[in-house]
């Protein structure tokens, strides 16, 4: 089952890249949650919550808000994918261009909890201090 869980999350990741809320919503449970550190740079810059509840809210963020901060050249490099029956952990580096032309690069760890073949909860971890320097410093927003 760990291979199936891995594939569910990797396929969802491809769907996130579509930036189409109609395609993104079905990969989450109705009551899904996405938790990021409070006060993280993305939430502050976009005036969005760091804890999103419900697949409509999560899909809306991925489809509409994400691209307002990470405006071009978004690249994600997976450095590790670890899966069990209902848990997938992804270690990654994300790079992008910010609205002011600055370069964004940060490491993330995302923990995906699955339920009935769908994503039920995402816990997102990153270097919040580094993100703040890039987003709110020269070349950020």
Automatic annotation (TrEMBL):
SUPFAM superfamilies: NTF2-like (SSF54427). Residues 14-121 form the SnoaL-like domain. It comes from the Bacteria. It holds the Pfam family SnoaL_2. This is SnoaL-like domain-containing protein. It comes from Catenulispora acidiphila (strain DSM 44928 / JCM 14897 / NBRC 102108 / NRRL B-24433 / ID139908). The lineage of its organism: Bacteria, Bacillati, Actinomycetota, Actinomycetes, Catenulisporales.
């Amino acid at each position: 089952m760990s291979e199936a869980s891995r594939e569910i999350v990797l396929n969802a990741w491809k769907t996130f890249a579509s930036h189409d809320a109609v395609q993104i919503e079905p990969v989450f449970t109705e009551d899904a949650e996405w938790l990021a550190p409070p006060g993280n740079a993305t939430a502050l810059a976009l005036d969005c919550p760091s804890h999103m509840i419900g697949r409509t809210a999560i899909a809306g963020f991925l489809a509409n808000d994400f691209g307002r901060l990470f405006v071009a050249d978004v690249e994600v490099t997976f450095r590790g994918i670890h899966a069990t029956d209902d848990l997938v952990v992804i270690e990654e580096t994300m790079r992008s261009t910010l609205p002011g032309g600055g370069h964004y690069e940060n490491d993330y760890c995302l923990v995906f909890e699955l339920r009935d073949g769908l994503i039920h909860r995402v816990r997102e971890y990153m270097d919040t201090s580094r993100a703040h320097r890039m987003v709110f410093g020269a070349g950020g927003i």
